[in-house]
Predict the structure.
Amino acid sequence: MARKLTAGRFSDPELLILSSIAEGQKHGYAIMTDISTFAGVQLGPGTLYSAISRLVEMGWIEPCEERGRQRPYRLTPQGLKHLQDQLQQMRYLANLGLRRLREA
Amino acid sequence: MNKETVIRILIRTYPTDWRLEYGDELTQVLTLRPLTLSIAGDVAINGIWQRVRYAEAWQLCGAGMALWLIVGTALNSISPLPKWAYNHFFRLDPLMDLAIGYAYVSHHAKGVFAAALAAGEASLVGILPEVLLAILWATNLLHPTILSMSGTPSTIGHGITDLCFRMDGKMSPAALLLSVPFTLLPALLIGLIGAAIAKSVSASRWLLRRVR
């Protein structure tokens, strides 16, 4: 079966999941509750698992050994690099915006 | 309907390969949470989206053709379309079949017969609304209006106006179902032509490179 595998836009659910897993390996439900705690965003289970499957296909996260029906995921080295790049870009944009606001 | 049944139905919206990989985990997460309407919607929408992502090109093209037919049928039901506008809903299919045949050879590196088959499969998906209409008509659940070719509505029923058979005289659901093989054969042929064009273009390019 053909599977479209494009890097696509680094949209919010992916960034939130990577940020959550950056702390250590987590399974789907733990990721969802963690995101709700640290970002105040309620990711739907469908959105969460669609994003997880995209991240796995892109090689940014990988499943660890299964614990019952819940499988934890961890960051890959490529995923870690992507997360660092994205967060640095966000920091640059945030700093730039704040500086311009101060100057205005 | 209990929660487990609803979850099972929701999980079925995802493609089989995806379900095998993530189905159990998603089921577990859904079991642990209250199943609200928004969560059910989120799961169903993402399931459909995953189906689109996993779909073959011919499935997407076929779905596009079916959608085009539904749009045409809906417009024709609201108000009979003029003949020139109506014909646009028929011109798309051969063009799509040709494009599928061409693309399967040039972009997907498939063989000529695989490309023709893809065009045929797409056309079969494309006429699914027609088949559904014929079944509803045959079971007396729907009585479509048939419009004469001259444009004067010749009503033999009520409700939806059939898009494909705008013709003089009587039309039956059986005749509508019989149109399926007549859709498939030209689609296979046109797909084959598209594939042959792609092969010719590829051969010409190769020849030009050799000459240079």
Summary: DSSP finds eight helices and two strands in chain B. Chain B touches chain A at residues 15, 17-18, 21-22, 24-30, 32-33, 38-39, 42-47, 49-50, 53-57 (CB under 8 Å). Helices of chain B lie at 3-11, 16-32, 37-54, 57-78, 83-106, 112-126, 128-138, 173-211. The first strand of chain B starts at residue 146 and ends at 147.
